[in-house]
Amino acid sequence: MIGEGLLTGMKVTLGHWFGKKVTFCYPEEKITMTERFRGGHLAMDYKKCIGCQLCAMACPNKAITLKSVQDAVKRRHITSYIHDVGRCLYCNLCVEACATKALYWDKEYACSSWNREDMYHQVLTDDDMKFLDTAMEQSKVLAVEKAKKAAELIAKKKAEEAEKAKAQAQNEAQKPAAASEKPADKPKEKPIENHDGEAKPVD
Ligand code: SF4
Ligand code: SF4
């Protein structure tokens, strides 16, 4: 039949035209990556991070460089966390090594760059830095309170020990006086009288 091929082709075209959309207009439109997608930049929940550096130690390609600081109550905080995207193998070892589950992927797959410098990604945000400042200030207050409590505890302990020593000294002083006292004379036993009123000797 003449035109049969054209009709078959149009059928396929119209099927796609009205069917489910399978493409998108990148870069205006971006798809949401799946839960298990591993890629983009490293991201961090700063409040969970304890500055242990396990993530950097677990990285086989030395793609993580971090700096940390200790606060007044000896807690560690990260001050800088650089993820070198150019060196990253996306092996996920850093995320798995994190003891507090603070690390995750931002899934931003469009992270190509023209120069290498742009591939050094600072993971910490301005909000994280504000949190750090607050945490440092709070730690100073906590340290003062802690020192005060420790001093009170030492003073209390010393007072208890002094009280104990005083009581012991008093006991020691009373002991010789009690030892020098004469034992009281044994009361004489009254003779038992028999029925006739005569005194019966005590056995
Ligand atoms: S994914 Fe692998 S290579 Fe990349 S930063 Fe983490 S540990 Fe290093
Ligand atoms: S392993 Fe986790 S908790 Fe430790 S420094 Fe890295 S991100 Fe922070």
The biggest sheet, with number of strands, parallel, antiparallel or mixed sense and barrel status, is:
3 strands, antiparallel
Shape: elongated
Structural class: alpha+beta
Order of helices and strands: HEHEEHEEHEE
- Measured as a percent range, the helix fraction is 25-40%
Low-confidence stretches: none
Ions, cofactors and other ligands present here are: iron/sulfur cluster
* Share of residues in strands: 5-15%
- By CATH, the topology of one domain is Alpha-Beta Plaits
Name the CATH architecture of one domain.
Answer: 2-Layer Sandwich
Count of individual helical segments: 4
CATH class group of one domain: Alpha Beta
Summarize model confidence as the mean pLDDT.
88
Record field, number of beta strands: 7
Over all CA atoms, what is the radius of gyration? 43 Å
Cα end-to-end separation: 151 Å
Strand order of the largest sheet: 2-3-5
